[in-house]
User: Which sequence fits this backbone?
């Protein structure tokens, strides 16, 4: 083997080792930030495809509905913090959730919720974040009022103003 081939072989091997180490370090760093999504039934019985049940201490996201009558608020007068416990359910099961903090405004019993936290023993979730789902048909009152006012405008208000568009084109051409 001549020197040129040997140098190329060393270069290729060192590049492959470098790329492999870089990928290994990236995957190791991302391992701690991966949150898998589960439903309450999947936490209890495992995912349908793999029958994989999450382990205690695993970070995860749980999506389901807040069970009516399950929300319990406990205030701490010293720190002015609120401890909330509630149950998230779906068609296959239910899990209990504990959260320390302020809940979103859209959080209600019987409403959809996504909880991000850590799985504790007995299928209990210690939540770090609670996201409330909302109805996709919801329109804020301000937007509703603006839409009603726009429908009362005469049709002439919606016509394109030709002089305005000419000024814009002239400005654009002068700027270039």
Assistant:
């Amino acid at each position: 083997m001549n020197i040129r081939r040997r140098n190329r072989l060393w270069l290729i091997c060192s590049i492959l080792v470098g790329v492999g180490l870089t990928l290994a370090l990236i995957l190791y760093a991302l391992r701690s930030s991966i949150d898998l999504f589960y439903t309450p039934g999947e936490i209890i019985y495992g995912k349908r495809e793999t029958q994989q049940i999450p382990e205690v201490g695993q970070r995860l996201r749980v999506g389901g509905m807040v069970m009516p009558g399950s929300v319990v608020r406990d205030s701490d007068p010293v720190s002015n913090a609120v401890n909330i416990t509630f149950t998230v359910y779906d068609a296959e099961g239910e899990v209990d959730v504990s959260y320390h903090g302020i809940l979103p405004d859209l959080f209600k019993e019987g409403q959809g919720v996504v909880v991000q936290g850590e799985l504790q023993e007995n299928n209990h979730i210690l939540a770090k974040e609670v996201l409330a789902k909302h109805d996709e048909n919801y329109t804020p009152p301000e937007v509703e009022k603006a839409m009603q006012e726009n429908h009362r405008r005469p049709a002439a208000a919606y016509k394109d103003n030709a002089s305005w568009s000419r000024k814009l084109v002239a400005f654009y051409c002068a700027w270039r």
Summary: The beta strands are 36-38, 59-66, 72-76, 81-89, 94-100, 112-120, 124-132. Residues 144 and 175 are 39 Å apart (CA to CA). Residues 36-132 form a domain with the OB fold (Dihydrolipoamide Acetyltransferase, E2P) fold (CATH 2.40.50.140). The two ends are 61 Å apart (CA to CA).
